[in-house]
Amino acid sequence: MGSFDINVLLIPQRPDQRSRPDLNCAFESFSAGTILVLLLTTQPSFDSDMNHLSHTIARELIHQFTDFKRRVRTLAQELNEEQFWIKPYAYGNSFGNLVLHVTGNLNYYIGAQIAETGYIRKRELEFTETHVGKKEESLKALDAAIETLIATFETQTDADW
User: Which residues have CB under 8 Å from 62's CB, separation 6+?
Assistant: First the structure.
C-alpha cells in the first residue's frame, strides 16, 4: 500500500453557527502524498476523551462528503449533457471533468490507499477525455466513491488513524 499523510484541523463551533456561510469544509490535496482536511465540528472542546476524536473525524467527514454529493447533484441537475461537459475557457475544466477528478481523488486516496480497493487511477484522462453522453454515469461514479468513503470511515478504529 502507498504512503501518504492526512493532516486534520478541527475547528470547533457552536451548533447555532452551523449555517454560517463563512464556516465551510475545505478538502484540498495540496502536494503529492498529502491531504489536508479542515473540518468544522460541534465538539465543544478537545479536552474530552481523545478516543472519541477518530469517531468525530469520521462522522464529520461523512457528513461533509454526503452534503458535497447533494450539492454536486443539485448543481448538475441544472445542466444539460452538453453544458455538463463544456469547458468555460480553452484552458478551463468542465463541470463534468471536475466531477471525474474528484471521483478519481476519492477512489485513489480513500479507496485504493485506505480501503485497498485496487483502484488504478488514470488522472490525465480525468481532464482530457470527452465524455459527452455520460453525465449520469459520471455522477453515479461520484456517488459510489462517496459510498466507499463512508463505508471505509465507518469501519476505522482509533488505531487506524
Answer: 149, 150, 153, 154
Residue 128 belongs to what H/E stretch?
helix 125-128
User: Which residues, in sequence order, are CB contacts of 7 under 8 Å at separation 6+?
Assistant: 34, 35, 36, 37
Q: How does strand 26-31 pair with strand 5-12?
A: unpaired
Cβ contact 93:127 at 8 Å: yes
In this prediction the pTM is 0.69
Q: Residue 59's closest CA among 143, 141, 156, 145?
A: 156
Instruction: State the residue range of the domain holding 92.
Output: 5-160
Overall domain count for the chain: 1
Q: How far apart are CA 39 and CA 46, in angstroms?
A: 13
* pLDDT tens per residue across span 53-93: 788 889 999 999 999 999 999 999 999 999 999 998 888 99
What whole-number distance in Å separates Cα of residue 96 and Cα of residue 29?
Answer: 19
> Cα dihedral angle (13, 160, 145, 89), rounded to 10 degrees?
60
The CATH number assigned to the domain holding 109 equals 1.20.120
